[in-house]
Amino acid sequence: MPPFARALLALVVGIALLVPAAGCSGTKKKGKKGGLTIAQQREKADKESTPDRQAAAYLKIARKQFASGDKSGAKESGKTALQKISGEGEASQVAPRLIDVAGFLAEVGEKKPARDALKKATDLAATLEDPVRRARVLAEAGGVYGDKAKGLADGKAAKDALAQATEAAEKADERFRAEALAAVALGYTRSGLADAASDMVGKLEEAAKGLEEPRAKAEALAAAANVKAQTGKKDEAKALLDEAAAAAKSVERAESRAYALVAVATALDANGATKEALSLLKEADKAANKVAEPDAMKTIVDKVRALTMALEKK
Question: Are domains 1-192 and 211-314 of this chain identical in fold?
């Protein structure tokens, strides 16, 4: 999944997973269509080729259980996911997965293991040589630390992680700086610390406007607009979003266009333009359904429809 899009997924993943799922941690229940039992899903997860993939599979099980109301089973599966990913591994793969698991554990009330996972992820981030990857990991960790609804609501830890993320992003090569700064912007907005991001978002705007690739430009401008929206600068946000929407609509590749439109729609909603956001999501849905690869299509279609459902309820 594209990096920027992965970060956005955190905003809507809870709704995306409202699908028929195996029931309680009880292992005999099946889905409405006779799917695998929880025990069978766990057995399948254990057979994945790497700890990272095993953790991802257990996290998927946990999210399904949580969506179906089985909170205790979800906690158990989430903790197992953390156990799977707690060993040695490639930092660039392990750190993002740790943050995914931490975010879920925090959401279901398992604060201590969530904090432990975030600490390990940020420690691993320090070993990453690529400043873009380092910025992304630290920004996502900051988002989970600070998120008051689904995270740890720890503003101090969030600020520390996001300050490190900003420092890393500013060291990125000029070609990739906007991508890194956009990830940091999302971390600030998720953690509710947009007011502290004024200097960073100015640099993001400057970097974004110099981009030629339309998807990257759309996503970077949308991230900057999101920060502006959360700090009450609605007119400035709107100007950025007009430019971001134009860039997103010009993307030729269907999958990339869908992701770009989702980024802009998310920022439009943050700026109070929910009607316009839903209009863009209709275009995103059309683009998503044109993606040739089945798994990639399902991922983006689910993302678009989950966000659409969330906005339609407003």
Answer: yes
Distances (CA, A) of 218 to 122, 210, 223, 259, 272: 28, 12, 9, 10, 18
Q: H or E element: which one contains 286?
A: helix 274-288
The conformational region for residue 192 under phi > 0 = left, psi -120 to 50 = alpha, else beta, is left
59 and 81 Cβ atoms separated by less than 8 Å: yes
For residue 254, pLDDT beyond 70? yes
Residues 6+ apart with CB under 8 A from 14: 63, 66, 67, 107, 150
CATH architecture of the domain with residue range 1-192: Alpha Horseshoe (1.25)
Give the Cα separation of 303 and 12 in Å (integer): 7
Q: Does residue 34 have a pLDDT over 60?
A: no
Quote the CA–CA distance of 137 and 130 in Å, as a whole number: 11
Q: What pLDDT is recorded for position 6?
A: 55
Which CATH architecture group holds 211-314?
Answer: Alpha Horseshoe (1.25)
Reported as half-sphere exposure (CB side, CA atoms, 13 A), residue 234 has a value of: 6
Asked if residue 29 has pLDDT above 50, the reply is: no
Residue with tokens 């095993």: 54
Query: pLDDT band at residue 199, thresholds of 50, 70 and 90?
Result: confident
27 neighbors 37 (Cβ within 8 angstroms): yes
User: Which whole-number Å values give the CA distances from 277 to 151, 153, 205, 245, 284, in the listed order?
Assistant: 25, 28, 21, 10, 10
Give the whole-angstrom CA distance, residue 97 versus residue 208: 28
**In degrees to the nearest 10, what's the CA dihedral of 267, 205, 245, 172?**
-90
Q: What does the domain layout of the chain look like in residue ranges?
A: 1-192, 211-314
pTM for this predicted structure? 0.78
- 22 Cα distance to chain centroid: 25
Backbone angles phi, psi at 299, to 5 degrees: -60, -50
